Amino acid sequence: MSAASSSSLPARGALEVPSLGADETGAAAGEAFRRYTSPSLRRNGGAGVAIVWFRNDLRVLDNEALLRAWAASEAVLPVYCVDPRIFGGSTHYFGFPKTGASRAQFLIECLGDLKHNLMKQGLDLLVRHGKPEDTLPSIAKAVNAHTVYAHKETCSEEVLVERLVRKRLEQVVIPHPQGGASNQKKPRNPKLQLIWGATLYHIDDLPFSVDNLPDVYTQFRKAVESKSAVRNCNKLPLVLGPPPNSGLDEIGGWGTVPTLESLGLSVTKSEKGMHFVGGESAALGRVHEYFWKKDQLKVYKETRNGMMGPDYSTKFSPWLASGSLSPRYICEEVKRYEKQRVANDSTYWVLFELIWRDYFRFISSKYGNSIFHLGGPRNVVSQWSQDQALFESWRDGRTGYPLIDANMKELLATGFMSNRGRQIVCSFLVRDMGIDWRMGAEWFETCLLDYDPASNYGNWTYGAGVGNDPREDRYFSIPKQAKTYDPDGEYVAYWLLELRSLAKERRNFPGASYIKQVVPLKFDGGHQKRDQQFNRQRRPGNMYRRQK
Ligand SMILES: Cc1cc2nc3c(=O)[nH]c(=O)nc-3n(C[C@H](O)[C@H](O)[C@H](O)COP(=O)(O)OP(=O)(O)OC[C@H]3O[C@@H](n4cnc5c(N)ncnc54)[C@H](O)[C@@H]3O)c2cc1C
Ligand SMILES: Nc1ncnc2c1ncn2[C@@H]1O[C@H](COP(=O)(O)OP(=O)(O)OP(=O)(O)O)[C@@H](O)[C@H]1O
């Protein structure tokens, strides 16, 4: 399938995703909220104050932590901690910025929109700069919160923070709220209540324990599709307010959503490509735009391997990663579309891809830190280089291969790259350059708007041939990929101006008209045969050995 036509991106100026504008976006979000509001929902005897600690779940719709807090209390306090480890820290091995400026900007927009949507529900968002384990206990003490509700994460950095928050909350003492049974009225500690909510399929509904998760994706998918059901989205009451009426002044009021400058970051808005608008409203707007307005869902499977413009794929990933969009909401919209318009392979395929996302999330739980280690979950031993000059030529889009360079420039300029592009640049870095795959993964961690540890490291370990599934060990031939997915060189000429004047068939093969190639390709002709030969050579026991 070739890439979408260049007419889908203007030659100058970035295209907003969604491209609806504020009014239409607001209307689409409002309509979604109306559909999911149930006026008959009532608090069920809740007492006292509950805190919602927002993490990667920056939404109001289908946010179970928020709803559980509402049901269990008389007043809800939503809190977000601007964690210096996330906004100021570095990646683990190679010290790149933990969160690049583009993603920070996207998250700031998510927070602004979350605050807005919470206010519409009679609440607000308390924003604090600091580590959750330092800030949440003092907030809990000030408002006498009996519980902190939050979504459960799976990777060790986030799990460590959960552990620290729990421990520090145990050191806080609060009085018991009025009205409980008399034997429960002694002072107590706020509890941390963690809720599973990032995946399409709930972890409790899997037909196996996470430790017994199949290592082959297809087995996982078939099992959940046949034996599990996706839960319904949680309905919202008419209002979620009020917030607590005392204690907030003591801790300095609601605080403000940070700006890029306040985080010591700056970003130059790209003149090209896509500009993603952060926030739950934009996310709901994008679902409306892609499914209903542009009616793209029915052709998704045919277009999804494209590289140009907003509509070859859903572009839901940045909102899914920040939690501004619930995968269950997407699923319900797919079902609604299938009823009202058409059901075909394409409508199903979006769910197929969302199951990949689930799969990597569960894999991160099963395999723990090994998804971040050089040998990956299978502990594969191999020779890797950390050649800085080669890595930088990849990072900056100066390899001499237009398809690689265009993709890397898109990533740098916009924080996004297509799935096709990601597979190609990953294969090039690890197979043709022989560079330590973690350098690539960490650079993606810095740049991607949709960075998600499980999906990023899961896909990189697959691409590097060290993933949990030994059969996933593929070499992507650059000439073959260029001919198939960018036959007229539209994509490379969009990102590399110097190629525009060349004949279409030469843009991906410019020879001396373009910069010198930094490495030869492992295989550059007779692609099919060579690809297979390469894969055979890399099987364990030859280039790869398994560690005993
Ligand atoms: C090396 C590499 C690194 C990646 N890093 C990330 C990452 O950090 N975060 C991330 O969300 N995705 C990552 N992906 C997966 C995939 O490239 C993106 O999810 C996808 O390109 C996002 O665009 P989209 O929303 O238009 O996807 P669509 O094609 O519209 O797919 C719909 C949704 O399905 C999910 N999905 C699709 N493909 C995958 C996949 N291979 N793995 C997991 N989920 C998938 C995503 O949530 C996506 O939004 C990576 C892929 C590779 C090869
Ligand atoms: N959310 C995350 N994003 C990126 N990396 C993560 C995340 N969670 C955990 N990691 C990585 O998991 C690894 C955990 O490191 P840690 O030192 O705790 O354990 P380890 O297994 O001994 O690893 P190492 O020996 O490589 O340091 C690190 O590579 C860390 O960066």
From TrEMBL:
Q: Which GO terms describe its molecular function?
A: deoxyribodipyrimidine photo-lyase activity; DNA binding; FAD binding
Enumerate the residues marked as the site Electron transfer via tryptophanyl radical: W384, W437, W460
Q: Which UniProt keywords apply?
A: Chromophore, FAD, Flavoprotein
What residues does FAD bind to? 300, 313-317, 353-360, 450-452
Cofactor(s) the protein requires to work: FAD; (6R)-5,10-methylene-5,6,7,8-tetrahydrofolate
Which residue ranges does UniProt annotate as crossing the membrane?
A: none
Q: Which GO terms describe its biological process?
A: photoreactive repair
Cofactor comment in the record? Answer: Binds 1 FAD per subunit.
Which part of the chain is the Photolyase/cryptochrome alpha/beta domain?
A: 48-184
Q: Which InterPro entries is this protein grouped with? A: Cry_DASH, Cryptochr/Photolyase_FAD-bd, Cryptochrome/DNA_photolyase_1, DNA_photolyase_N
Annotated region described as Disordered, given as residue ranges: 526-548
Instruction: State the similarity comment.
Output: Belongs to the DNA photolyase class-1 family.
- Known PANTHER family for this protein? CRYPTOCHROME (PTHR11455), CRYPTOCHROME DASH (PTHR11455:SF22)
Biological role: May have a photoreceptor function.
Q: What is this protein called?
A: Cryptochrome DASH
Lineage, broadest ranks: Eukaryota, Viridiplantae, Streptophyta, Embryophyta, Tracheophyta
